[in-house]
Amino acid sequence: MNVLILMGSPRLQGNTAEICKPLIDEMEKQGAQVRYVTLADKNILPCRGCYACQQVTGRYGCPQKDDMETIVHHIRWADRIVLATPIYAWYCAAPMKNMLDRHYGLNKYYGTGQGSLWAGKQIALLCTHGYEADYATLPFALGMERLCEHSKLVYRGLYSVRDEDDRASFQTQEATEGARAFARRLLQ
Ligand SMILES: Cc1cc2nc3c(=O)[nH]c(=O)nc-3n(C[C@H](O)[C@H](O)[C@H](O)COP(=O)(O)O)c2cc1C
To answer: Taking the model in full, what pTM does it have?
Structure first.
């Protein structure tokens, strides 16, 4: 099974990166092929809303030439996609938001383009946050559930850990075992 982790924190060695480690380790132990891609160090321009991607069939078709082409290549390779992000202002952090807005060319709903480049893929969330879990993550989780519905993806749920003591919060046995259990569930 091919698993893509898209890590959207501006802190490449921060809390979210930390909780990705046991998840990835467990997936690899279970035999999955895992690709870990950080977004904050990539050039992902904001969607311009030009709809050019909607006139194109069989390929992504965004006229902006940046690292999103490579991200799309990874997305098309993956059976499972894990969106790993800190909660910023009750949603995902900006590098992930730019990437999510650029999903448009993966669906062809609003022009002469036909088909989908990612229907049926399974999406899960891995979040870190300062507030209590439900209060912090519900808006983003709801947004992603809706995106999955809209894009004919399968939403596989969320695992999250609260930041109580910076990176140490993500190294506890409870946090890491939870990430491992989530990894095993996602591979089913
Ligand atoms: C700019 C900023 C905005 C944040 N907004 C929220 C928020 O809306 N809700 C929340 O629960 N935590 C919020 N936090 C806390 C982070 O989600 C938390 O510290 C997270 O673990 C940081 O992960 P990172 O080290 O991967 O960046 C915010 C932190 C920052 C720096």
So the answer is: 0.98
